[in-house]
Amino acid sequence: xxxxxLKSLTYPRWLSILAVVTVPVxxxxxxxxxxxNPFEIPLxxxxxxxxxxxxxxxxxxxxxxxxxxxxxxxxxxxxFLGTVNYFxxxxxxxxxxxxxxxxxxxxxxxxxxxxxKPSAKLVGIxxxxxxxxxxxxxxxxxxxxxWRIRAxxxxxTVLCSVLYVLCxxxxxxxxxxxxxxxxxxxxxTYEQNGFFVSFLVNTKYLKVEKPDGxxxxxxxALLSExxxxxxxxxxxxxxxISRTMASSPGGEKPNIIVxxxxxxxxxxxIGDFKTSEDYMPFFRSLYGSENTxxxxxxxxxxxxxxxxxxxxxxxxxxMAFLPTGSIPYQQFLSDELPALPQILKDYGYTTTALxxxxxxxxxxxxxxxxxxFDEFLYNGxxxxxxxxxxxxxxxxxxxxxxxxYEEKKQxxxxxxxLVTMQNHGGYAKEWxxxxxxxxxxxxxxxxxxxxxxxxxxxxxxxxxxxxxISYYENVDEKTIILMFGDHQPHMETKFxxxxxxxxxxxxxxxxxxxxxxxxxVLWANYDIDEAEHVELSANYLNTLLMDVAGxxxxxYQNYLSGLREQLPIITANFCIxxxxxxYSADDFDQKKExxxxxxxxxxxxxxxxxxxxxxxxxNAS
Length: 621
Description:
- By secondary structure, the chain is α/β, with parallel strands linked by helices.
- It has 23 helices and 15 strands.
- The strands form four sheets. Strands 6-5-9-3-10-11-4-12 form an eight-stranded mixed sheet, sandwiched between helices. Strands 13-14-15 form a three-stranded antiparallel sheet, with no helix packed on it. The protein has a two-stranded antiparallel ribbon with strand order 1-2.
- The protein is globular, with a radius of gyration of 27 Å.
- The N and C termini lie far apart (88 Å).
């Protein structure tokens, strides 16, 4: 009887009209409230958020002819979108960005390593969504048979939607509305502008425009000038630039092994903390040791987007000139791009990429051949497959490097580039094969489960790295091993606040920049100039490697070596000049001349293939 009464229930017309007016607005506020207080968003952006929801509901209404569907579908959409954004923020402290759609497959492949624990607030908001959706099922303002009205309404809604998006991508309108744009802190940007405005504003960066003053001739001239003045540089023992080559270009070419270690970092750069035991004793023992260069690499990403650090390292390009949140591997690399693997291949190296996880992550299986790799070994082709938390361990990955070297050493000098997986996020989960053996002093494990798991993993890497170095200490062939981290991990906010000694949300850009550095060690089994406390960004790292290997650099690499003397650190979020002056992304215009020239060369390298002279980026001068 109750079911019958519910089925026959009809709302008075005024109640249906009230639902049409208020439900889209409520769906907007519920989405925003999942992550922040929506009423702190300026009113003009709140209204733009309403408009998005009204346009969505209108389109569904005119296409379907049913008002209940027009209200329920947007509710379900915003509930889903808000929930996904909530967890994305939890895992990487950055909201959903337009480029994440292309990254969805990679994200899903590691999703089972994270704990999806909704807060009471999230559960309450989802319950409110459900109640609203159930209420809207009985809203009845039919338009089923009025085809002309429906067609006209659909067309008008689509037109208004296009204009809505175009307006949000127009700089003049954005300036008039005072839209907040700060690539360093996208989470704060979304809090200031609201989800829909921020997301749609970011879509304007899907296409990279030519830099002001760009021409292929300008790029060629800059590279030609750099090539004439560039005679190679390598760090001397005091960390200063020395105009001497490590060895003759015509001499024995050393094997080059590069390890970009997943989330490998030393959080003590933020602030000191005591642990039950040292989590990287061997790695630290190499600082200042014989035939070793060590220091910090400054990167453009935090807690994810690994592919961007490897892009900067392999190409010498920087994320500073690319859209915030973009992934070059997925958006911009569809043709051959001159890069370190091809440069070394031209020197007679065999070039092997290794990654102990899925080959299609970040499109690596498509991108690596375009960069010059002869071979790509991934989890399905690994011989060594010992696992920890279901990931192939660094120990196995390092053994795989040795196996590939022994197989190819008769073919010429060996270059391998390994991107590890062992230390990937998901530290809060419990695993049958993993025990947290290193803990932060003075805190119970259940209070800092993530950092304790992370430190334990770092110690596992340290032990494996010691074994790798020990193997190559006994190899007769000259060999260089470079290991660095791709980014820092996400950690408990309370722990980070203890390191900083202040609230995380109140950090100045210079303080936040500490979250964008990872350690590196470059070790050789033969005599090289030593250096310690070296600070550089990832885009310069391959030029340092070429110098130490005694290989003549390309014009582009010579340009980068010269630029590094002025601006040793350039990331998407900040740069630091040779005098130690810090410039946030908003202050890049203070280094306009140097950065503008770099941007012109990078555009020629990455985007203007038809006018690019490959000899500027490949053949050593």
